[in-house]
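ERR on first pass: missing label on line 2. Operator R.T. fixed the label and resubmitted. Corrected input:
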Amino acid sequence: MRTRPLKVALLGCGVVGSEVARIMTTHAEDLAQRIGAPVELAGVAVRRPDRVRAGIAPELVTTDAAALVAREDVDVVVEVIGGIEPARSLITSAFQHGASVVTANKALLAEDGATLHEAAEKHAADLFYEAAVAAAIPLVRPLRESLAGDTVNRVLGIVNGTTNFILDRMDSTGAGYAEALDEATALGYAEADPTADVEGFDAAAKAAILAGIAFHTRVRLDDVHREGLTEVSAADIASARRMGCTVKLLAICERAADGRSVTARVHPAMIPLSHPLASVREAYNAVFVESEAAGQLMFYGPGAGGSPTASAVLGDLVAACRNKLNGAKGPGESAYTQLPVSPMGEVVTRYHISLDVADKPGVLAQVATVFAEHGVSIDTVRQKGKEGAHDGAWLVVVTHRAADAALSATVEALRGLDTVRGVASIMRVEGE
Ligand code: HSE
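pass 2 clean. output:
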């Protein structure tokens, strides 16, 4: 074994960074054996140096991240500060100065992964980011390497733990969205500002990363259609139950049937209780991958938190260190297909629509005509008279698969009917 240690610059020492540092110290012997050389911290860049950081020698702590990544003796930079800047500049500088990079930064990869990949390629360095999607769940490496010889057609996943916790609570207790969010906040799942999670930004960034790897093309955050779960009501969840479904916030990446384009989207959807993703409870994540040769694969586990994220970072760190030692380089970006990303309107899906209608002759026929005029075929219709009202009813329509544009045009036309008093809920149905 080589005795001269490999040096790691750690950018960020919050929940994830401190856990990375702890495991590097407590498992130093094992890591050295697995890598073939000892690995040690060259420095830890933080914003607030006065904070006590157990297990980290004070002389390693610096506020000058730019100087740390530019050090000649640094072999690998681990970036766990998040956000676009200064992370992008620091990572680019790390490559320029000869280091490989391990990052958990989903926002940056989804916003400007191309810049990072190009810089890594130019300097023959590794850019690894297993921790950016679903934390501990091995997903990026299986897609990038294990399935590199297969053709992935679909990735369907629950990639945000906070929202899965909220929906799971709504489903199991009948709570409304606000109540379930409060519980998620109290238990530390949801942040004080939960926007990134509940509006689907976090899941959309992960969808962009997954779609890019799965389909060997470039997909950016802006390419991902995004709807959060703030509009999901207890009534939607109850309606899903009546259909033998549950509601999940799904990230869905698909290759078009003709193979010439891809789509990526994040939105709440009903999935049948028999689908494996329906049994993913609490804050767990799971991703279902469908490929030509392998068939259906499911990856499941904790998708957030300090230790699970550190586990993914450490796996990448070991790989990057091994490559450094061997003068090798792992896989770079594979975006050769250059497939265009189609807009949401071209996605083919099913809708579940609840309508508040007048209960009189001809209403059902009128509603059915609107669907027919837009080329949308109805699968099932259920009508229930409103309790205590003599002229009102709930009409629940589930469609067959149709283009999303045709489905939303249908809903718009339904809103224009005098006999339709309101569209109570619209939700896509997936996983069948
Ligand atoms: N906030 C995310 C979640 C974890 O709830 O899953 C980090 O991406």
